[in-house]
Specification:
The chain is 21% helix and 40% strand. By secondary structure, it is an alpha+beta fold.
């Protein structure tokens, strides 16, 4: 019986796994105030592009200004005390020089001068600190990027834990992929990761740059990361993506789907083997893996060099003499 055959040859077969990844930005900043009070002005809106230092929010600073003003008044009093103490020390020094005052009196005047100067310096440091706090009532952009959602409104009372908005820069994106712990031993940096679309076609191919040394105790997964390019807005922060991780490219053989039959849950193929009077068809059980294109990955039962029968299967049985047509190619 004439049959079509192909000679199997080993070729690299990618062993892959598909997972859900989340796009994160390495340049995503959460904007929270360092001061508390009522929000007086919102100077940006969602979608605005900002640069470092651009004003974004203003918090009512009346109470803080009162604190600074009070300390300014105290500083004026401490300056007067320090000036008077210095004058007293200078007089005591002059009187000590002509013998009209004792050394003890001069030492006391000098100590009072140092104490007054120390009090003045302490007030000045307090003023400096409160003025620094005063600057926190003007919230500015720490980095460049695009303003996200602004959940607050003018008149809201904000605290140090209030989320004002976010600033995202999509030029530094990463895909966070969680791989089950059972496959963790196969993970290593430099592995290929393909981000695929709804049809399973690769959008972009990247390399793993980070493998977490620990396991997430909630999901029992290991986190890996890979960089992503924005691709004209194709990827955005917090977007879910389909990620295909290539664990290995070990050589193996494949068999066309049409050459494989299934009987009672077991998969079989026919191979052409040499017999006493020519070639005969031999049915051989195989174990298959994933499907690549229109072919099964054969994990056991076939090897490179076997002559696989791929056509004319309906007219042959185990041990039947066959006439193999010239091989149509190597697989």
């Amino acid at each position: 019986m004439p049959v079509g055959t192909v000679v199997l040859a080993a070729k690299p077969l990618p062993q892959t796994g598909e997972f859900v990844g989340t796009v994160k930005s390495r340049k995503s900043t959460t904007i929270q105030p360092q001061a508390e009070g009522f929000l007086r002005r919102i100077l940006v809106k969602s979608g605005d592009r900002v640069t470092p230092g651009r004003p974004m929010f203003e918090i009512d600073q009346t109470s803080q200004q009162s604190v600074v003003a009070g300390l300014e008044s105290v500083r004026a009093a401490r300056e007067a005390d320090a000036t008077f103490a210095k004058q007293q020390a200078d007089r005591s020094k002059a009187l000590l020089g002509v013998g009209a005052a004792s050394q003890q009196e001069y030492d006391q005047a000098l100590a009072q001068q140092k104490a007054a100067e120390a009090q003045l310096k302490a007030v000045e440091e307090q003023i400096k600190g409160q003025k620094t706090e005063l600057a926190y009532y003007h919230v500015t952009a720490p980095t460049s990027g695009v303003v996200g959602d602004v959940p607050v409104r003018e008149g809201d009372r904000v605290t140090r834990t209030t989320l004002l908005t976010t600033v995202d820069d999509n030029t530094g994106l990463e895909a966070y992929i969680n791989v089950p712990v059972q496959q963790a031993p196969q993970l290593k940096t430099g592995m290929t990761v393909r981000i695929i679309d709804e049809a399973g076609q690769p959008i972009v191919t990247e390399k793993v740059t980070f493998v977490s040394p620990s396991v997430d105790d909630q999901t029992q997964t290991v986190l890996i990361k890979t960089p992503l390019s924005p691709m004209n807005g194709r990827f955005r922060t917090d977007q879910f993506v389909r990620a295909q991780v290539v664990f290995s490219n070990d050589p193996g053989v494949t068999a066309p789907v049409t050459a494989v039959t299934r009987i009672n849950g077991q998969y079989f193929v026919f191979v052409a083997e040499a017999g006493p009077q020519g070639k005969v068809a031999r049915q051989r059980p195989i174990t298959i893996g994933p499907v690549i294109g229109n072919e099964y990955v054969v994990t056991s039962g076939l090897k490179a060099g076997d002559e696989l029968i791929v056509s004319g299967l309906q007219k042959i049985g185990d041990g039947m003499p066959v006439m193999a047509q010239p091989p149509t190619g190597a697989r």
